[in-house]
């Protein structure tokens, strides 16, 4: 389902649902298809739960902790569409044999390192894309500014023409109106492109914010794992 479908299903406004998807993306299992993100049916209860928790006055950090206890989450570790489940560490971990603990330590460390490296790479790609979009937007805004200046000059010319002979004035006005009609489609196209780039820029900013949240979460997970491994090896935390 698209976010618009989820908004209709849950009654959550589309901009609010988009913010939820960016803040808690690990719990929705969204799949990127072109420029659209699609969500499975089981994402609907998660959206409803997030809305309910915000309605109770919970802050984002509290909601994230509650979602971790109630719903599974995934993190991307490879190309788009590939996910790795991040399991909770069970209390029985302390009873594992020593060699199995070493194996588990290596596996968890490798998986976390790979996930962190992948997130950093995507973070850099997002920044590059944002810079490229901003460059395009600046060019479009410059073109629109030039068109507006052109309309100002045309208006001034119309005032000058008003002082001339009436027949000559009408001829000039007709020519200018024709030029203005020819310029209107281009202006409309430029404005449409600008709106699209502005929307993409907002989407990239949301993705950047989500990446920052993910990096912070990975650091916290890594610290928890290190504390657990220290306890297993009898080291002070």
Mean pLDDT equals 77
What's the number of extended β-strand segments? 4
The strands making up the biggest β-sheet line up spatially as: 1-2
Rg over C-alpha atoms, rounded to the nearest angstrom: 28 Å
- The number of helical segments is 6
Largest sheet: 2 strands, antiparallel
In the residues, how many domains can be counted? 2
- Uncertain segments are 80-96
Assess the beta-strand content as a share of residues: 5-15%
What does this structure look like?
- Helix 5 runs antiparallel to helix 6.
- The two termini are 45 Å apart.
- The protein folds into 2 domains: 72 residues, Multidrug-efflux Transporter Regulator, Chain: A, Domain 2; 149 residues.
- Helix content is 73%, strand content 5%.
- With 237 residues, the chain is mainly alpha-helical.
In short:
The chain is mainly α.
Secondary structure layout plus pairing:
Blueprint: H1 3-10, H2 14-23, E1 31-33, E2 36-38, H3 43-55, H4 60-70, E3 74-76, E4 83-85, H5 98-161, H6 166-232
Helix pairs in contact: 5-6
Pick out its properties.
two-stranded antiparallel ribbon, single chain, 2 domains, mainly alpha, Multidrug-efflux Transporter Regulator, Chain: A, Domain 2, 6 helices, 237 residues
């Amino acid at each position: 389902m698209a976010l618009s479908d989820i908004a209709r299903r849950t009654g959550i406004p589309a901009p609010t649902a988009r913010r939820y998807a960016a803040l808690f993306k690990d719990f929705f299992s969204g799949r990127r298809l072109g420029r659209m993100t699609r969500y499975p049916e089981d994402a609907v209860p998660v959206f409803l739960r997030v809305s309910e928790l915000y309605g109770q006055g919970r802050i984002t950090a509290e909601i994230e902790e509650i979602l971790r206890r109630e719903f599974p989450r995934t993190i991307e570790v490879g190309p788009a569409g590939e996910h790795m489940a991040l399991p909770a560490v069970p209390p029985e971990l302390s009873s594992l044999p020593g060699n199995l603990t070493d194996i588990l330590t290596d596996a968890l460390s490798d998986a976390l390192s790979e996930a962190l490296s992948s997130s950093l790479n995507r973070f850099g790609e997002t920044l590059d894309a944002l810079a490229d979009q901003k460059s395009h937007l600046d060019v479009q805004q410059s073109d629109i500014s030039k068109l507006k200046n052109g309309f100002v000059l045309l208006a001034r010319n119309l005032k000058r023409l008003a002082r001339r002979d009436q027949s000559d004035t009408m001829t000039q006005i007709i020519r200018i109106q024709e030029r203005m009609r020819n310029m209107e489609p281009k202006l409309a196209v430029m404005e449409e492109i600008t709106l699209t780039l502005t929307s993409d820029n907002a989407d990239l900013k949301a993705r950047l914010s989500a990446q920052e949240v993910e990096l912070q979460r990975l650091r916290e997970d890594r610290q928890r794992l290190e504390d657990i491994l220290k306890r297993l090896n009898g080291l002070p935390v």
